[in-house]
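Incident log, structure service

09:12 report received: a user says their structure output differs between two submissions of the same chain.
09:20 pulled the input from the user's history:
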Amino acid sequence: MEVDDVITEMAVERVEFTCGRCWHEWSADYDVQQYRDEQGGQWEYFSRDGTPVPSPYTPAGAPPCPICGRRWVGRILARRPVPMPPGATHTPRLKITDASGHRSERHGARLLGSAAHVQPEPLGPPAEESSEPRVPR
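09:34 re-ran on a clean worker, output below:
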């Protein structure tokens, strides 16, 4: 982002993928920032585990299925907005008086990975073994 860009929204989005070939389901969390550039254009920036990635909602950003390798565009499953500072008046906050020593243990904390959550349950038996058709959600 350029110096004059302004972040207008931040969120964590859980994106679900369903492979149209093998019907495997998986999900991943993406950090999303929306920002406005100095010309007034609106942009969206995605990252996973701190690495910039294309939008998972586009064919170019669709990750490969971990089972068969085909790529399928994701759909939003859940979203958590990240409040923008400084927050409303009287929002709880803590002034940092020692920037170099403030919660120094966080620098060595393990990465909370984008797939570090409970994954969707398998769909069950294949359609030919079940009386009901398998339909992706």
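09:41 both user submissions now match this output. Likely a transient worker issue. Closing.
09:42 reviewer note: Residues 34 and 46 are 9 Å apart (CA to CA). Residues 6-101 form one domain.
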